[in-house]
Amino acid sequence: MKSWTIRLFQDRISFELSLRYLVTALAWLAIALILFTVSLSAGSNWIPVSEVFQQLTGRIDTHTFVVESLRLPRALLAALVGAALGVAGLILQSLVRNPLASPDIIGITSGASLGAVTCITFATGVISMQFLPLAAIAGGFGAALLIYLLSWNGGVTPVRLVLIGIGVAAIMKACVTFMLVTSEAAVTTKSYIWLTGSVYATTMSDVTSMLVWMAIPIPFLLLLGRGLNVSELGEEVSVSMGIRVELQRLIFLVCSVIFAGTAAAFAGGIEFVGLMAPHIARRFVGRSFYGTAVITALIGASIVLLADLVARTAFLPQDIPGGVFTAAIGAPFFIYLLFHSKNR
Length: 344
Description:
Layout: E1 3-8, E2 13-18, H1 19-41, H2 49-56, H3 64-96, H4 108-123, H5 132-151, H6 158-182, H7 185-196, H8 204-215, H9 218-231, H10 235-240, H11 245-267, H12 273-284, H13 289-313, H14 323-343
Antiparallel strand pairs: 1-2
Helix pairs in contact: 1-3, 1-13, 3-8, 3-11, 3-12, 3-13, 4-5, 4-6, 4-7, 4-11, 5-6, 5-11, 6-7, 8-11, 9-11, 12-13, 13-14
Keywords: Cell membrane, Membrane, Transmembrane, Transmembrane helix, Transport
GO molecular function: transmembrane transporter activity
InterPro entries: ABC_BtuC-like, ABC_transptr_permease_BtuC
């Protein structure tokens, strides 16, 4: 099949672009755009797609509040959250060479949840809840730092990193549960809704803030992404090719934390997207990090857009957190992966 090799920045960035890859990418982009458009039309009142386009292009102003203030920021944030979680999971799975790794399984999302619930429990009424995303991101970084330090034994091995991460995740979930049980009912309810994962009441300010955070790790991934391809061949191969394995591992871990922590900060504990999206992407494209990352981001965005769309339209007038549906799909998928790994 026809393919082209793209080389940028004096071969620092290079990847192969095949016709099959382009078709796959365009197909997933079309799915994401369809879900995005339906998200703007569907709700307690259905707005025809033609009127949504007219509203967005300024030709009418009939649905300004519903489309531009309520549904557009929510759909945009859902897509960004899904893309961020998917890429975070892809980085972790490539880094630790384990198909079961994802931010929510090795403890990064749990750290973000602990940071957010601590903020809700002890800082409500003291500081503005606008600092909640910052608390969640700090919690994610704290969890990653703790996992990395506990995993260090003259270096960090992928298996040790995963096992320590699972243990740290369990401890942090226990801390979150303790705070939920001992807090006042109102605080517990607020924390529980956040933990379930939802993009309810999103504003364009949230979308802008998340875009800024997501832009931070992208240059590092573009410059060092080839190292992830090599690292999947084993540590000895990476060292023999002159790659500083520990430094590379730390940088990629920080990039994954930024993606996962930012997603958790703005949408709560939406689980299993970081596990499912990379697996689905690899069924369509090869193992090149650059190519897989783009497809993974589109699949992750589609999953969260679909989950949020179903959550807010299937049980009207109730608005169910989208994380309920990602967990309902993701948990059986995780079990399937476990059986598949066992039988290989």
